[in-house]
Amino acid sequence: MIKYIGSKRVLVPRLLAAVRALPHVHSVLDLFSGTARVGHALKQTGYRVTANDHLAYAHALACCYVQTDARKLRRPAGRLIAELARVPGRAGYFTETFCVRSRFVHPRNGERVDAIREAIAKWNLPPELEAVLLTSLMEAADRVDSTTGLQMAYLKSWAPRALKALELRMPELLPGPGTAAQLEAVDAAARFEADVAYLDPPYNQHSYLGNYHVWESLVRWDKPATYGTACKRIQCRAYHSPFNSKRRIHGALRDVLAALRTKWLIVSFNNEGYLSRAQLEELLAARGHVEVAEIDFKRYVGAQIGIYNPHGEKVGRVGHLRNKEYLYLVGPDRAALTRARDAALAPDGTGQLTLP
Asked: In this structure, what is the dihedral angle of CA atoms 10, 81, 66, 209, given to the nearest 10 degrees?
């Protein structure tokens, strides 16, 4: 799956362990699904998953990894991916915008992205099948990008991986049903019922639309006007999530919590977020008892590399290289929540806290 600053790759075993420890859970609502990594893991474990995200690229990933039934689409998707792999490159909007005016991928790969995306658009496929092909293309471009993980942090010189040829692969599709939705979180919370809701909202100034604007433009294929050296889509200037606002995040989360139609709730948050642990616990207490699993993590790759100005010169110093991830477990039964918390802290079943 694609590189992502909010990825829960190393947290997934802990999340699965917590969900398994809760009684009578069969369905999960993932309100901020992002890469769909969590939804994919939950579906693989046997839960009925609804994955929601308001961004187009995240919805495509959720359609691929949660909604698509591999038994129905693996073969036709495989045939089309093989056909797309033979499409010769042809420079267009993507190459000019993200390879010439900025440095997301090498122009040779940009030409392939342009030609493949145009072919997908012309085929006018059913939504799930198109989502599988778009996911294959996003992941292929991600493997040859020249960034530090954010699509505004392009490297001054081409990364070694950027010089490799773009290669389409079949995404890891899973058998069985699932649902993908593209709604604002509060609307999805009101619409979908589930046994557990998992919330991993944006928690500070970092906008997922701004950080991953290339994916949004690639999936929408609306070829928008752009601005700045990163060639962000103009929409990034106009849209401001309340979860990226220190002033508005408390009210936005309160409204989502009030709208939820679930018995249990798991919230992933970070000590770099706009809300303190005390504020979150106060908000969540309205939904029931609250238990907290505190987990130590490395900060994202940009923090490890350092801070650079637009000319590629290193400036300033990063204050810290690790942070705290909090899993808030909420519901009516404190004993069950305690078991879930303990399971999250020891997902390998040893009873010992295993740090990533």
From this structure: 70
Q: Where are the domains of the chain?
A: 1-67+176-202+245-356, 70-173+218-240
Within the chain, what is the greatest distance between any pair of CA atoms?
A: 60
Torsions phi, psi of 312, nearest 5? 80, 15
Q: Give the range among 80-94, 144-158, 248-262 with minimum mean pLDDT.
A: 144-158
Tell the CATH topology of 1-67+176-202+245-356.
Rossmann fold (3.40.50)
**pLDDT of 20 above 80:** yes
Of 88, 92, 230, nearest to 165 (Cα)? 88
- Give the sign of the dihedral formed by CA 65, CA 104, CA 3, CA 50: negative
* Amino acid letter, residue 351: G
Place of tokens 């801070």: 307
Mean pLDDT of the chain: 90
Name the residue with higher pLDDT: 48 or 311: 48
